[in-house]
Amino acid sequence: MPEKKRLIFLLIFLVFLLFVVNYNIINSFLIRSFESPFPYEFGIVERVIDGDTLVVNGESIRLLGINCPERGEKYYPEAKFFLESFVLNKTVKIQFGKEKYDKYKRILAYVFLDGKNMNLQIVKEGFANFYFPSGKDIYYSDFKNAWIECLKNQKNICKPSTDKCAECIELKELNYKTQNVLFYNSCPFECDLTDWKIKDEGRKNFVFPEFVLKPNNSISIKVANGTNTKEILFWTDQTYVWTEKGDSLFLRDKENNLVLWENY
Question: How far apart are CA 92 and CA 23, in angstroms?
């Protein structure tokens, strides 16, 4: 056999041998990559701080994709108890997001128990709205659908308002470029919006001062410095509210029940 052919056969044999030896390693890597688009590890939940924060292996974990009520707000203790009842002292899978840490140095992660995404379950049960401040990832659609399911089932923070004006107030504009929101009263009677609340996906809240919206009239809420007028209310304690990467608006009555929501 010519020397050239002999070298070719030897090379093919070595490649085949290398493939056989490393097949299990390669296969395992491919399965892991397919099942988990983000890196992950396992740990024991040592403490549940609130509905969207827990401690695993001594590290503070901020749950991705959700935002729960804060201390003092309606459903805060229920959200904490719900998460605690499932994961406390359990071994969970921690799947990191695109960014591993938030500005408070907490780890950002999805938490899985027995293959179930607990972040997602919290939204389904109405203890959190969906929340993607860094932009939409592969789980975004799952969380948005979980929120819609929660609205359908009218659970907890998804409970609809029974205020007579809930059917009257329409969202006419949500403009993240101008940071402006416009509401319109389509009913033939006045609507008292005092203590109603506008909220984004995160922690930013606007509480209406003493204010009545007249029939067939509109009101703008702007994120800017200014003095409230009959036509414009100013959200003055923020430099911005509505993000370019996508956000949601939640309007709630004075009982904290949901009047409407809009997502972009």
Answer: 29
CA 4 to chain centre: 62
Per the structure, the complete domain to which residue 123 belongs is given by 40-157
| H/E run at residue 249 | strand 248-252
* Segment 181-223, tens digit of pLDDT: 999 999 999 999 999 999 999 999 999 999 999 999 999 999 9
| Nearest 10 degrees: Cα torsion 171, 173, 174, 176 | -170
> Are residues 149 and 44 part of one domain?
yes
CATH of the domain at 76: 2.40.50.90
CATH number of the domain encompassing residue 246:
2.60.40.1260
Q: Tell me the average pLDDT across 164-193.
A: 98
Q: Express the helix, strand and coil content of the chain in percent, nearest 5 each.
A: 30, 35, 40
List the beta bridge partners of residue 212.
192
What is the distance between the alpha carbons of residues 149 and 24, in angstroms, rounded to a whole number?
41
Residue 53 and residue 137 in one domain: yes
Q: What are the tokens at 214?
A: 């007249």
Residue 123 to residue 133: CA distance in whole angstroms = 16
